[in-house]
Amino acid sequence: MHPLDNVIWQALTTRQENFAESFLDARRFFRDVTSLGAFQDPTDQGYESLAGLLGAGGTVALFLEKPYEPRPGWNLVADAPLLQMVCDDGTFVSSERDSASAIVELTPADSPEMVELAALTKPGPFGTRTHEMGMYLGIRHEGKLVAMSGERLKVPGYTEVSAVCTHPEHTGKGYAGTLMMEVMRQIRQRGEVPFLHVRQDNVRAIALYKRLGIAERAVLYLAVIKKS
């Protein structure tokens, strides 16, 4: 199996197992870290394990290889096709920062602002402890956090670039690309390969990622499901 296949499961059973809650064939991240979870296989046993892990009313976000099919005892909250993209060619990642943008490394003290920015821009699930998953960088304007990007899923040899977001009042300034290049540069420095996930209908973001040398690898299907 490639490290990026069933990537949430692989993260929770390798480099990020310290964030995992487990029950039989299912795992999920601690709730205040992120809503992502997975099972070893999308079988009846996999869903039964997930149900045992979540309990009645529990919600989890899955990455599936096929669109979610309705199952008894589960309600679909949201779904969307995703592109999994990988930056295999490190030559595309600039080693220089945009001198006009002061990049700062974000700390646990910045978590409330990070959660607020993510809630406004909706780059994906972001909790009060998401920042613990890896390095996060930001750009401030007049003291206010207006853009950020960082690391989320980690599997052997690969680290995901995530939470790429810019405050609506500060788009068009190149902040997202600047932050992503720096995050990818530091991932590359560790000898790892950057990858990411993006909604298939987010044409603007996909165009940016391709300009940064990030290529499509696979189509996945996000399914947010709730145990009834």
Summarize the structure.
The chain has 228 residues and is of the alpha+beta class. It is 23% helix and 35% strand.
Could you characterize the architecture of this molecule?
With 228 residues, the protein is α+β, with helices and mostly antiparallel strands. The chain folds into two domains: 7-83 and 223-227, Aminopeptidase (3-Layer(aba) Sandwich), CATH 3.40.630; 85-218, Gcn5-related N-acetyltransferase (GNAT) (Aminopeptidase), CATH 3.40.630.30. Helix content is 23%, strand content 35%. It contains five helices and eleven strands. The chain has helices at 7-13, 44-54, 111-121, 175-189, 203-211, and strands spanning 20-23, 26-29, 37-39, 59-64, 74-86, 103-105, 136-141, 144-155, 158-166, 193-199, 215-227. It has an eight-stranded mixed beta sheet with strand order 4-11-5-10-9-8-7-6, with helices on both faces. Strands 1-2-3 form a three-stranded antiparallel beta sheet. The longest helix has 15 residues, at 175-189. The chain is globular. Mean pLDDT is 93; it is low at 95-100.
Secondary-structure blueprint:
Layout (H helix, E strand, L loop, with lengths): L6 H7 L6 E4 L2 E4 L7 E3 L4 H11 L4 E6 L9 E13 L16 E3 L5 H11 L14 E6 L2 E12 L2 E9 L8 H15 L3 E7 L3 H9 L3 E13 L1
Parallel strand pairs: 9-10
Antiparallel strand pairs: 1-2, 2-3, 4-11, 5-10, 5-11, 6-7, 7-8, 8-9
How much helical structure, as a percent, in the residues?
Answer: 10-25%
Determine and state the CATH class of the largest domain: Alpha Beta
Strand content bin: 35-45%
Q: How many helices?
A: 5
